[in-house]
Design brief:
alpha+beta; 8-stranded antiparallel sheet
Amino acid sequence: MRAKDKMIRIARTLRPIGAQQLWAQGVYALRGLRPPPPSHGPAPELSPGGEPTAFLPGPRHARWLSSDALELIQRQVDFSAGVDWGYSAEGPLWLYHLNQCDHLRDGEISPERRRDLMLDWVRTCSTGAGWDPHPTCLRVLSWGKLLLTPGAVALTPAEARQIHGSMAQQLDGLERNLEFRLQANHLLANLTGLVFGGLLFEGPRADAWLGREGDLRAELARQFDSEGAHEERSPMYHSLLLENLLDLLNLLRVREGRAPRPLAEALVATAERALAALSVWKHPDGEIALLGDSALGIAPPPDALLAYGRALGLQPRGPEVPGLLASAGFARLEAGPFSLVASFGPPSPAHQPGHAHCDALSFELVCEGERVVCDTGVHSYEPGPRRDHARATRSHATLEIAGAEQSEIWAAHRVGGRARTALVTFEPQTSLEATCASWSTPDTLHRRRFSLADGVLEIRDWVEGTPGSARLALPLAPGLEPRLVHDQEGGTETHIRLPGSGHLRVVLPIEANWRIERMPYYPEFGVEADRACLVGEAEVFESGSWRFEFSPRAE
């Protein structure tokens, strides 16, 4: 790419960024992170209060093995000779998870082992990625929840003071480096961790951390819309942030003397809407749809979050139109053997779309409880072919027009030109119609209508404006092997045997030439599975229809 084109792309990328974020980016580019302040004064004491409701266990991807190897996001590292808290051979995402310390919430670790690992971090990790604001705020939550759980950590009074003093220094460093340059989930997690620390401890420093609760309330109002969906349009990040908010509310309930009433009200209102939003993304297997940057095994599954919310006295509220998250760009249709989650939003939020994919008008489909059409998921955040594949238009169950991406994705988290999308109509349970104009083909509009009635799913695609070539994709769940059948009139259909229930027949748009390709699938960080993808190509595509019919297996 020529230098001029690169500059134009950068300009398109930066255009939606606000003044505060742009200023913070410039300051970070010049100065980097501010070092943590020197430890000063006595270690703060834990604030008095009752015992909170039981916190959720740690994520399933993070566990210590009996050999003293640590497994994080499907990668094992031998730490039998001692933990290297700066270990970077598995990449920055692994390193961040190492320092977040969610692995300490593994139920198989003894209280003594937790103590030893926490003290080892305090004594040996004085610089490096562990002090970056994102792992810091999440580590404060992890350590704080362990300190609040009776019997979770075996500490002498002197060891407790050492842990408390380190956490105070970490919180001071966090407050100096709040991620205004990144915004979105990073800033919200920063503020949640800071306010959590303000409730966990007492004293002047804790009062200062707690004083950030007004900023937290402002971010809650900005990042979670009225329907309860987080602005980054990722069910995984939505769930991670929701757990953090529930943890903060949990602590707040037993520290009412320190908790400002407006904060409690904001947390309850946001959490109840966010819990309700999970109903749109939750598949019958109990897991989330893998839309945007989402992977299984990182965030608690929806049912665990709903149970946690109920234990805190919360009731999911919304969405106002069942099955529709209009602002976030998601809808759910469910009838007969089918349930479908469709994505129809643009890259979001405009100022930080780093977790967005080219997935407008794509969908995930479940038939009789079995995943059939699956989004690609996410393997890692390292720049390269896997990251590019996960975000590409052709990796989703949608239409690629003229060989171009819906949005101008580049690097690992950048988006320049943006697709324009719109919701046309939605009828609960039965139909959805939406449109997408790709950034590179703005005069060509892709219109898609989903209709679910009488046990049959129909999808109709139109291309309005300047016609051109098109590539249609139907990426399937691993283990499903489609068989193409061509009739004498040029039509094509595919037959798919569902292992647990029966047979799915899909009549494919006659306007395209169909074949079966092999495509990677990333259901979890670090996992790559092979699967079949139905691909249809047309030199000129104006319209076409899909028809999905299920036949149960004969007894």
